């Protein structure tokens, strides 16, 4: 990874970034050390490099700093084509250099939603340079076991603040709503994205035949496959007369980092990866998070607790930010979650297997899509099977498996 980029990602380039981001032309870079910042299974639509920089200011004291370079895929393949044609990096640049800056200012430094952007480059190679949150004590939670109650509540408090700040910002600058119109489902996306959903569904139908408890649903899943993208489009559609926010858009455990106290209790949380942010109902982020990231017993027994925590924080924060818009009532929130329930179902079918794929078996998108057969090891995980055995009868009862 570092080798492919070494020709241009050198001392001069890093020096230029630091001078610009710190507004200090006396900075001189002495040395840089780079390594991949993520492993397979943690990140699918970009390449991440962690660079440790040794530098001095005014030719004096030596300093050290860690930064993250997030690159649009450099290697040709399906992944590069998807990311480029869907404009994922354009969305993230806009979020990080404009929208999130303003949302963070509204909330104040105590409740930061995202890392600081240090530099953005819109031509070849397309990239973002971001502060390294690991050096501030943030780390990933364990995606394989699903988040416990403490992690889930913390994440939903911060998500509610994210949504509230977006409402306040959109009231001040209505044009922000028009900047985020695509999200995960859009007719403007390249056909390859639709293919991922279709292939995922077909693979799930093939796999669920082997699960005696829910085998009877596999035929319905197979029939849904060709329609799944349209179902997603319908479920995520913007209704102007509803309560709407700028959604994170890819709101799962891999895109959240946590800080812990000495007893291992999570004390702070921050978001990363804003490539599919979208202005729509907050039900999208909530359904995505609830169906992709939380441990089975918490989602089963504490769903109302979680929704209460979210809505309380949303309401309080909107009041603090003097929003004119009214937050939803619990009745309205539950109604929109029910109306868009198929979005949660699609998350369970397509996104959750990625979350539950062990690190040893994780593959990148090119490997998953280029062989002709769609292989996602997460579909075969015991924990995935256990969750789907619980959820499939519910989806069927709600009529979501019928065309």
Structural account:
By secondary structure, the chain is α+β, with helices and mostly antiparallel strands. The protein has a domain of 279 residues: Alpha-Beta Complex (Aminoglycoside 3'-phosphotransferase, Chain: A, domain 2), CATH 3.90.1200. Helix content is 46%, strand content 14%. The chain has a 5-stranded antiparallel sheet.
Unreliable stretches (pLDDT < 50, length at least 5) are none
Q: Using the 3D structure, state the CATH architecture of the domain at 91-113 and 142-397.
A: Alpha-Beta Complex
Helix content: 40-55%
- The number of helical elements comes to 16
Q: Please state the average pLDDT score.
A: 91
Q: Please give the CATH class of the domain at 91-113 and 142-397.
A: Alpha Beta
Tell me about the biggest sheet? 5 strands, antiparallel
Computed over alpha carbons, the radius of gyration is: 21 Å
Domain CHK kinase-like: 128-320
Protein name: CHK kinase-like domain-containing protein
InterPro entries: CHK_kinase-like (IPR015897), EcKL (IPR004119), Kinase-like_dom_sf (IPR011009)
Organism: Atta cephalotes (Leafcutter ant)
């Amino acid at each position: 990874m570092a080798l492919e980029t070494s020709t241009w990602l050198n001392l001069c380039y890093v020096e230029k970034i630091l001078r610009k981001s710190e507004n200090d032309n006396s900075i001189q870079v002495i040395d840089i050390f780079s390594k991949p910042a993520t492993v397979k299974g943690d990140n699918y639509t970009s390449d991440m490099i962690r660079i440790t920089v040794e530098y001095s200011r005014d030719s004096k004291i030596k300093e050290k700093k860690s930064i993250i370079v997030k690159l649009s895929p450099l290697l040709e393949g399906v992944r590069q084509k998807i990311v480029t044609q869907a404009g994922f990096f354009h969305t993230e640049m806009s979020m990080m250099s404009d929208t999130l800056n303003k949302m963070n200012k509204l909330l104040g430094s105590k409740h930061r939603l995202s890392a600081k952007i240090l530099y953005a480059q819109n031509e070849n190679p397309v990239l973002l340079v971001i502060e390294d949150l690991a050096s501030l004590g943030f780390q990933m939670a364990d995606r394989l076991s699903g988040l416990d109650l403490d992690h889930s509540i913390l994440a939903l408090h911060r998500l509610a603040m994210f949504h509230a700040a977006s409402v306040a910002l959109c009231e001040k600058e209505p044009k922000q709503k028009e900047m985020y119109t695509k999200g995960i489902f859009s007719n403007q996306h390249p056909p390859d994205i639709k293919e991922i959903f279709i292939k995922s569904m077909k693979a799930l139908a093939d796999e669920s035949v082997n699960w005696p408890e829910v085998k009877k649903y596999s035929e319905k899943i197979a029939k849904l496959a060709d329609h799944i993208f349209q179902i997603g489009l319908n479920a995520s559609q913007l209704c102007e007369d509803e309560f709407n926010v700028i959604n994170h858009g890819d709101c799962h455990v891999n895109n959240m980092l946590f800080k812990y106290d000495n007893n291992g209790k999570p004390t702070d949380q921050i978001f990363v990866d804003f490539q599919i942010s979208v202005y729509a109902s907050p039900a999208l982020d909530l359904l995505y998070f609830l169906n992709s990231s939380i441990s089975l017993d918490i989602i089963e027994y504490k769903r109302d607790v979680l929704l209460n925590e979210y809505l309380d924080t949303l309401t309080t924060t909107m009041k603090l930010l003097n929003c004119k818009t009214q937050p939803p009532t619990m009745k309205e929130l539950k109604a929109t979650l029910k109306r868009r329930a198929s979005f949660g179902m699609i998350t369970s079918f397509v996104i959750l297997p990625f979350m539950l794929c062990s690190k040893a078996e994780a593959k990148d998108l090119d490997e998953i899509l280029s062989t002709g057969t769609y292989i996602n090891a997460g579909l075969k995980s015991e924990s995935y099977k256990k969750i789907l055995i619980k959820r499939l009868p519910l989806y069927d009862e709600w009529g979501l498996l019928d065309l």
